[in-house]
From TrEMBL:
Record has ATP-binding as a keyword: yes
Every AAA+ ATPase domain range: 99-234
Coiled coil, from the record: none
TM annotation in the entry: none
GO BP of this protein: DNA replication
Origin superkingdom: Bacteria
Family according to the record: Belongs to the IS21/IS1162 putative ATP-binding protein family.
Keywords for the protein's UniProt record, in alphabetical order: ATP-binding, Nucleotide-binding
SMART domains: AAA (SM00382)
UniProt keyword annotation of ATP-binding present: yes
InterPro entries: AAA+_ATPase, DNAC/IstB-like, IstB, IstB_ATP-bd, P-loop_NTPase
Pfam family, one: IstB_IS21
Name of the protein this chain belongs to: AAA family ATPase
Length: 248
């Protein structure tokens, strides 16, 4: 038992989490399989790498703050909304992300904008990118509070280092002048450094009305649309067609 405890201590000092937490099971399995020294060493290192990769993925998934439904493997193509299977497949390959392209998903409520956006964030995180999903309300709150709270400042700094950010329901509600300027400054900083996914039920021409500033709206669109794919989704609301009832 002293040897096991010493192994735990050494593993803890070296931050070998798998070996620290499960030395008995690893040693017991080795006693059964009787691997050579080289194979046993490789197996220990392989287990540690896999554990660290899983821990890192879990952490990044948590930080992405995805909505409940976000796996595009379950996308229902029977519900026609204007995006084809080949188009979605190409988006999921994330080549556009490496090229710093933006994506605007535009259409009425219930046409799959949020699901597609969060699904692409999910795919990006799995692929190793720093990717985050934010509603416009959450983003405005971060911009408003970043000078006052450390949590908002940390969230803002993470966005500055992101590879991909999805902003859901942009321009749904009017913004105050200082909020609109702060939002523009963020987009300006991210321009050609980070890809942005926008979901909106308003056309770019209507953004000026929401911002109440045509010059600012033009400058914002100039940066977002420079390298950008605009997908116009349409059709009936998926939620309304598949709504649940207490008495079903």
């Amino acid at each position: 038992m002293k040897e096991i405890e010493r192994i735990r201590q050494y593993a803890d000092a070296l931050r070998l989490t798998m070996l620290k937490n499960q030395p008995e099971s690893l040693i017991h399995q080795a006693q059964i399989d009787k691997p050579g020294y080289l194979e046993f060493t490789r197996m220990l290192l392989e287990q540690e790498v896999k554990q660290r990769q899983k821990t890192d993925l879990d952490r990044r998934m948590k930080m992405a703050r995805l909505p409940k439904d976000h796996n595009l493997e379950s996308y229902n193509f029977n519900h026609s909304n204007g995006i084809s299977k080949p188009q979605l497949r190409e988006l999921r390959e994330l080549i556009w992300l490496n090229q710093n392209y933006n994506l605007i998903l535009m259409g009425p409520s219930g046409t799959g904008k949020t699901f597609i956006a969060s699904g692409l964030i999910f795919d990006a995180v799995k692929a190793g990118y720093k990717a985050y999903f934010k509603t416009m309300e959450e983003l405005i709150s971060i911009l408003r509070l970043k000078e006052m709270t450390s949590s908002a400042l940390n969230a803002y700094n993470r966005l500055l280092k992101a590879h991909l950010i999805a902003i859901d329901d942009i321009m749904l509600f009017p913004m105050k002048k200082n909020e609109a300027v702060a939002f523009f400054n963020l987009i300006d900083h991210l321009h050609e450094k980070c890809s942005v996914i926008i979901t909106t039920n308003k056309s770019p021409k209507q953004w000026a009305e929401t911002l109440e500033d045509e010059v600012l709206a033009t400058a914002l669109l100039d940066r977002l649309l420079y390298r950008c794919e605009v997908l116009k989704l349409d059709g009936n609301s998926y939620r309304m067609e598949n709504r649940k009832s207490i008495f079903n």
